[in-house]
Amino acid sequence: MGLAQKLVSVRQRLRRANWYLISGLGFLLLILLGLAYAGWKLDLLLNDADALPIQAVAVKGERRFTSDAEIRTALQDLMARSFFSADVMEVQKALEALPWVYHASVRRDWPAKLKVYLQEQSPVAHWNATAWLNEHGEVFAAPQEPGLDTLPWLSGPDDRGVDVLTAYKQMEELLRINSFHLQKLHLSPRLAWEAELGNGIVLDLGREDKMSRIQRFINVYPELLKQDKSVARVDLRYDTGLAVGWEASQEESQ
Predict the structure, then answer these.
(1) Hey, is 115 helix, strand or coil?
(2) What are the beta bridge partners of residue 115?
(3) What is the 3-state secondary structure (H, E, C) of 39-51?
(4) Greater pLDDT, 127 or 250
(5) Contact (Cβ atoms closer than 8 angstroms) between residue 74 and residue 94
(6) Which structural domains are found in the chain, ordered by start?
């Protein structure tokens, strides 16, 4: 085979190779375009609330204060999204923004349902007259509810909720076994304690030795009952002894 024929043969092979390469690249490009189009259509479908709506929200967990109507209102905008585009974290945040909800967990349940588990706040005391303390000593804001009036009334700086709740439990236990009931407990900004018993007697306990001072009151209370007067206030902020404030009699108040 002559040189000219070899050159022609090489050119033909190069043309075929280039054609194969161009055809292969073209075919690959068509596949990529097809995949992109399919992905775009799938994205449209997954985000189409009419095609894949959220048909139901199943709510579990014991609820005393959170109504179905409040849950529907909280999720109203989020329910307008499709099953796949709805952000479960946004749903969780919307539910946890409800005043009586402590924690919410949310998950998708194929094909068109959201499953929600709610844990409500567990109030153990009123806090600063308008708020509440939960069982962890955390302050939270929620409307007043009937049936909770018997809870103790605690107050103090908001960052001292745990301290006040712990002190209340300790004092209430000591007082209860001696036939008293602790109704109110206040911690001042200067960290001084003031307790009010169920019978209306106010105890000034100061900043230190609050438990021993309560015990001192318990010990001396039988002697106070022997007086022909009603006790209004007892100041126990002394190393020894106490000062008693008596209720004014009806004659004295006239």
Answers:
(1) strand
(2) 58, 107
(3) HHHHHHHHCCCCC
(4) 127
(5) yes
(6) 56-120 (3.10.20.310), 123-253 (3.40.50.11690)
pLDDT one-digit tens code per residue, 56-111: 778 899 999 999 999 989 888 776 665 555 678 888 999 999 999 999 998 887 77
Sheet containing strand 56-60, strands side by side:
56-60, 113-120, 101-109
What three-state secondary structure class fits 73?
helix
* Stretch (H or E) spanning 59: strand 56-60
HEC string of 182-228 equals EEEEEECCCCCEEEEECCCCEEEEECCCHHHHHHHHHHHHHHHHCCC
- Residues 60, 66 contacting (CB under 8 angstroms): no
Are the C-beta atoms of 208 and 219 separated by less than 8 Å? no
Question: Tokens standing for 138?
Answer: 């955390």
Token pair recorded at residue 145: 């509810």
Local confidence band at 253 (pLDDT 50, 70, 90 cut-offs) = very low
Task: Give residue 251's pLDDT band: very low, low, confident or very high (50, 70, 90).
Answer: very low
CB 223, CB 193: distance < 8 Å: no
Task: Annotate 117-164 with DSSP letters as a single string.
Answer: EEEE--EEEEETTTEEEETTS-EE-----TT-TTS-EEES-GGGHHHH
